[in-house]
Amino acid sequence: MESARQACRGSLLWVAGFSLCLNVLLLTPALYMLQVYDRVITSGSEATLLMLTLLAVFLFVVIGGLEWVRAGVLVRLANRLDERVVEPLHAAMFRRGLRQAGGQGAGPLDDLASLRQGLAGGALLAFFDVLWVPVYLALLFLFDPWFGVFAAVAGLSLLALVVTSEKATRGWLEGAEQEMAASRQRAAENLRNAEALEAMGMLSSIAGRWLSHHRRGLWQQSRASDRAAMLSSLTRALRLLLQSMILGLGAWLVLEERISAGMMIAGSILLGRVLSPVDQLVGSWRSVVAARAAYRRLEAIFREAPPPAPPMSLPAPRGRLTLEGVTAGPPGGRRPILAGIDLDIAPGQQVGIIGPSAAGKSTLARLVLGVWPANDGCVRLDGADIARWDRGALGPHLGYLPQDVELFAGTIAENIARFAEVDGERVIAAARRAGVHDMILRLPEGYDTWLAPGGGLLSAGQRQRIGLARALYGDPVLVVLDEPNANLDHRGEQALAEAMEALRRDGVTLLVISHRSGVLKRVDRLLVLDDGRVSLFGPRDRVLERMATRRQGRREATGQGGAHAADS
Ligand SMILES: Nc1ncnc2c1ncn2[C@@H]1O[C@H](COP(=O)(O)OP(=O)(O)OP(=O)(O)O)[C@@H](O)[C@H]1O
């Protein structure tokens, strides 16, 4: 955010420059009145009136032009800030999403939009105009000290009203923003799970949670609006009163022969210039408060999810995976899920990972792919700490089929090609490797079939098989499949077995998490996880034997226990 602010500094100087010229030119109406009343009317010269009027018209045209250019510079300033921030912000949202399982949705992008609106709106202009108030005040003091005092008190009273307005509405407005953001997030979540909600008749109960946020937000917004409306009516009335009163004061000063009639009118116009930025602030206060809150939230995201250390540039890996005393869990989580994991998996080995639910199998998958960092110890790919690899460079060497396969809006070919430039041959090769080529050809538009977000018209099994092709795209050296056969029929299982065979031939290291014996029959080694620790790891048959012996031991122990219980 700091560097974006620096980048905008140049444009801000331009805006300040335009504001300077404008504020000088905005003395035109006051000077025109002064000349008309004190020179034209006393001299009766029509030629002077014409010349003065022509000059005033010209200056007003210049004022209009300058206002237009200044507004344009502000829009460009807001766009420049957006350009600077949007990409790092997207990356930071992504990093935070990895840590917080979903993060805050698109909220930060809305924050950026409200910051942009705050910049391009009138509040910043009002700030630059406020800087000129002392100049107008000085002129009023020169006319007559009473004028100066009156204008100063008038300006301060209006300012006090603005500050009160800010204080009275800030809490409500910020609260309303938060509630409305939560309500949007809940509504999106409900829509995503529409089928389950409909099937189980959960809509009315789950809608209640969304509605409570929405109602609280609305209530807070109305409270803020009520107060703001009261204060802005008060401000408007006060402004009108002050504008009339200064004419009264001026008339009295004329009667006292302290100022001329022209000064009386010019004084009223100058008071308008003193009060106008305050008026503008009142008008744009909401967007100022919203932009300030948005700025703070954006700063917080960059603080919470700072960019990673510069990555190392390394040669392409061969697929040796080593875990050295690794303890890990979700980033920011207090309790580790995996503890004391030591593993060494040679390139080309196929390892099956089994264990009861919540044993930490998917956590291990995220860990070896570098999605979650190790709290302790180190995960190495070909000897290099996986956390230090450049993700963009490492990605093509890795394949991952997550438990919940997520396909993105785009064609099947784009999804398989991981949204890089589609190379038809490689897409087909990956589909063939995953045994899904024929299935794709049977779809209405083959590889060009368009998928809606989440996979659209595909069944869960089809999504899983296309997800497998995406994992095998290119030449990955390490592939991790998390429950790859959870939704597969017999043909899908067969295709998976063939894909595993192809990976073995190509010397690709494979980790496959599964509860089904069909897949596990083909692996070289088995890793049994239990409560976040390695319970057994070794050649498949030996591990299966040990598991059988353990089961037998447990059966005998419970059998004896039962006998004891029966004896007693
Ligand atoms: N994003 C997350 N944030 C916090 N805790 C998590 C997260 N993901 C998983 N966990 C916790 O980590 C533990 C292990 O989960 P994991 O998904 O690794 O288990 P698993 O062995 O793959 O289970 P299953 O066979 O049911 O898929 C669970 O207790 C779970 O609550």
Kindly list the characteristics that best describe this protein.
about 575 residues, alpha/beta, ABC transporter transmembrane region fold, Rossmann fold, six-stranded mixed β-sheet, 12 strands, binds adenosine-5'-triphosphate
Characterize the structure shown.
- The chain is built from 20 helices and 12 strands.
- A 6-stranded mixed sheet has the order 6-9-10-3-11-12, sandwiched between helices. Strands 2-1-4-5 form a 4-stranded antiparallel sheet, with helices on one face.
- The protein starts with a helix and ends with a helix.
- It has 568 residues and is α/β, with parallel strands linked by helices.
- α3 (46-100) runs antiparallel to α4 (107-120), α7 (145-192) crosses α11 (285-304) and α9 packs antiparallel against α10 (261-283).
- The radius of gyration is 36 Å and the shape is elongated.
- Mean pLDDT is 85; it is low at 561-568.
- The chain folds into 2 domains: 2-304, ABC transporter type 1, transmembrane domain (ABC transporter transmembrane region fold); 321-407 and 460-559, Rossmann fold.
- It binds adenosine-5'-triphosphate.
- Residues 101, 330, 333, 337, 355, 357-363, 403 line the site of adenosine-5'-triphosphate.
